[in-house]
């Protein structure tokens, strides 16, 4: 299974490189314009490459399950952010070099007489700057996620389209009609990816709605939505995976919210549950969802799943990061799995332990040990307290530690600290799996 994922991952990396580099090499084929100085040629090459990389971002965020499976969605979004910054740096270097080589380009008379394609270059550059500023400093600028998401898509479309119009309009390397066709074809492909996500996929989801059959209040300002497929069999998921939930509207809504499935993956009737903590404007309204409400689910996604042969599963959860663990535990119990499972569960206090009663009851159905780690323990508490750390692992796990399979989900600072601790305990990276609840 892992080997198949690795192979598939390698193939997709090759396809990615092909999409970025092939259009550049195609420019070198056929007839060439007269050679210009080195810096001008370099600047053009950087512009072409940056643009090809930017266009392919539509593919990275298109949620193609088959493509993202080998890495997991959080890794893909992280890559999207990092590679976008490189693409933007390349695109921005293009005009910087040109102006450095020919400062007269900035002279007012030249600016006024500039061809139309130059104005598209300005439009593209301004959109790119706005894209970066709003993506990096969204929280500091206090932009609501939904408003940012819509703006982000619009700016990306404008940046890429204006860049292509500038390129085709400047036409220096695109004298051959087939080269022009190739780049216009690429643009249509990139925009097609966006149309697939925004129109084709929602149309598919529209025919496969879900109904809320129960809304359960849980400990810790949290609610569970129980959802049943309405008129279709639903999908199967692996414990630990997540889906995108669209509530209060049609699947054409720009922003869906990602939540792990918290129910057992062994449910035969397609029922799925998501357990959601009130942390913002969307999640704070979950407890008000009426039974019978129609919702849409896009999934399953993610590579954070049990399935590798392991003698012992060590689940490490911080706060609401317990939801994928709950799905794993419920599924193992339903499957009658007798292998030991240890859950490290970091929470604020005893009263806000989501699923506390059910977890205790599940101990009777599987070989489950729970180590609660309380940030604010009650008087007389003799269990673990503070932050989950390497000492706590050593107190409750049997060596060799590298033999167990670890799953970590919680706030970023907690995950960073735990990954570091596991590294210090010589647990190889292939033995631990992380799910980050922030794509930022
Ligand atoms: C893979 C994954 C699984 C998750 N599973 C759970 C879960 O099981 N239970 C749970 O309570 N929470 C889960 N979350 C977190 C949850 O998605 C956010 O808390 C929620 O979307 C916040 O929405 P809001 O409007 O209430 O809060 P806001 O205050 O608007 O947002 C808080 C932060 O959440 C992020 N966020 C907001 N909206 C989105 C969105 N549409 N897409 C991506 N990120 C967004 C942004 O970084 C934002 O700054 C998960 C997140 C991810 C990425």
From TrEMBL:
Membrane topology per record: Multi-pass membrane protein
GO cellular component terms listed in the entry, alphabetical order: membrane
Domain of life: Bacteria
The keyword Transmembrane is assigned to this record: yes
Subcellular location: Membrane
Record field: transmembrane: 12-30, 42-62, 83-101, 121-141, 153-175, 181-199
UniProt keywords, alphabetically: Membrane, Transmembrane, Transmembrane helix
GO molecular function: oxidoreductase activity
The FAD-binding FR-type domain, residue ranges: 205-307
Protein name per its UniProtKB record: Predicted ferric reductase
């Amino acid at each position: 299974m892992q080997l198949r994922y690795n192979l598939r991952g390698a193939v997709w990396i090759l396809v990615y490189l092909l999409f970025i580099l092939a259009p550049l090499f195609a420019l070198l084929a056929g007839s060439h314009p007269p050679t210009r100085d080195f810096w001008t040629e370099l600047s053009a090459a950087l512009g072409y490459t940056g643009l090809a990389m930017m266009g392919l971002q539509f593919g990275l965020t298109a949620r193609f399950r088959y493509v993202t499976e080998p890495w997991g969605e959080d890794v893909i979004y992280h890559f999207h952010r990092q590679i976008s910054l490189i693409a933007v740096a390349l695109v921005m270097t293009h005009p910087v070099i040109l102006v450095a080589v020919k400062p007269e380009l900035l002279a007012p008379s030249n600016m006024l007489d500039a061809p139309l394609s130059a104005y598209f270059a300005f439009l593209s550059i301004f959109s790119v700057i706005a894209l970066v500023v709003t993506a990096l400093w969204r929280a500091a600028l206090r932009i609501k996620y939904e408003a940012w998401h819509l703006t982000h898509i619009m700016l990306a479309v404008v940046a890429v389209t204006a860049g292509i119009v500038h390129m085709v309009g400047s036409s220096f390397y695109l004298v051959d009609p087939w080269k022009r066709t190739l780049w216009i074809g690429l643009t249509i492909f990139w925009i097609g990816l966006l149309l697939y996500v925004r129109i084709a996929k929602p149309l598919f989801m529209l025919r496969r709605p879900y109904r809320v059959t129960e809304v359960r209040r849980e400990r810790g300002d949290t609610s569970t939505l129980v959802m049943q497929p309405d008129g279709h069999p639903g999908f199967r998921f692996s414990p630990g995976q997540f889906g995108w939930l669209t509530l209060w509207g049609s699947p054409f809504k720009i922003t869906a919210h990602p939540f792990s499935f918290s129910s057992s993956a062994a449910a035969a009737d397609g029922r799925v549950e998501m357990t959601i903590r009130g942390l913002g404007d969307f999640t704070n309204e979950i407890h008000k969802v009426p039974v019978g409400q129609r919702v849409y689910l896009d999934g399953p996604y993610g590579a954070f799943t049990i399935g590798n042969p392991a003698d012992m599963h060590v689940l490490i959860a911080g706060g609401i990061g317990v939801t994928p663990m709950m799905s794993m535990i419920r599924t193992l119990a339903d499957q009658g799995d007798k292998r030991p499972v240890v859950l490290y569960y970091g929470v604020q206090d005893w009263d806000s332990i989501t699923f506390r009663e059910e977890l205790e009851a599940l101990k009777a159905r599987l070989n489950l040990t729970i180590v609660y780690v309380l940030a604010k323990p009650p008087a007389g508490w003799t269990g673990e307290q503070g932050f989950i750390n390497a000492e706590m692992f050593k107190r409750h796990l049997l060596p060799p530690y590298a033999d167990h399979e670890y799953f970590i989900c919680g706030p970023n600072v907690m995950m960073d600290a735990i990954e570091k601790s596991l590294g210090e305990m010589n647990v190889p990276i292939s033995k631990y799996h992380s799910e980050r609840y922030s794509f930022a």
